[in-house]
Amino acid sequence: MAPVRSTATQRRADAVAVAMRVIADDGLTTAAMQRVADAAGVSQPYVFRLFGSKRGLLLACLDEVEERVRTTFRAAAAQRPDDPRTAMGAAFRELLSRGVTGGLWLQASAIARHDDVVAARCRGVISVLLGETERLTGADADDLARFLADGALVVLLQAIGVDLSGGSRAAVGTLVPGRTAP
């Protein structure tokens, strides 16, 4: 029996899954592209054929971040219709605890400072997620701003290794000189 070959769509999805981890850890470098190719079992030129460029691969990863967070928000809100915002925040912290989503977001944000296309895609992800949050929770503009700020805080605290098990407020308290964890 002949071996079954992956389709370009499957190879693309595999490459994105690998790239999210690699970019989160190492940034968007040529060496990272080679690691993605090696882990996906394809050549580096094939990765470029799939995505067109390093930027194209990063944009595909941002699409996946958007989908993962949307899926996380929807599932959390469905489980706690009485308090969807709290459930969504907890689920977001859990998603970030794996290290990939937050790490990739920080790398993309750094690249966005000098790349208008990546910056526009990052704004698009935030816009979609805020719209989803508004739809799921009925939040007003002030609540959405707080939710976004809390999410950004969680990304930052997770990236620098602060324990978030007690929530972001408790984590911030541990960083204030003279305070101890509650």
UniProtKB/TrEMBL annotation:
DNA-binding region coordinates: 32-51
InterPro entries named among the record's database cross-references: Homeodomain-like_sf, HTH_TetR
GO MF term set: DNA binding
Domain HTH tetR-type: 9-69
Superkingdom, natural source: Bacteria
Pfam families hit by this protein: TetR_N (PF00440)
Sorted UniProt keywords: DNA-binding, Transcription, Transcription regulation
UniProt cross-references to Gene3D superfamilies, sorted A to Z: Tetracycline Repressor, domain 2 (1.10.357.10)
PANTHER family: HTH-TYPE TRANSCRIPTIONAL REGULATOR YJDC, TRANSCRIPTIONAL REGULATORY PROTEIN
Protein name according to UniProt: TetR/AcrR family transcriptional regulator
Source organism per UniProt: Jiangella rhizosphaerae
